Amino acid sequence: MQGADPFVVQKVLGHSQLTTTRRYTHVPIEVTKTAVTGLESAFEAERKKQEEKQDREAAAEVKPAGVQPPSTRVQ
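The structure assignment produced for this chain is given below.
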């Protein structure tokens, strides 16, 4: 939580395996909430970016106003 590298904590505590260190490490809910909020913001920004791209692509496909397709009537 204070920014220490997990491998440093492992060595300081004398654990031979990182899994042992992780077993005794607990992340407070406040830290988890902050991380999740950051991820939500990143995903929302990416979603908006993708929507804007799709809107631009759809607008590029729209035919200009006043242009009529050729007639298919046989005379």
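Interim note for the steering committee: DSSP finds three helices and no strands in the chain. Residues 29-61 form the longest helix (33 residues).
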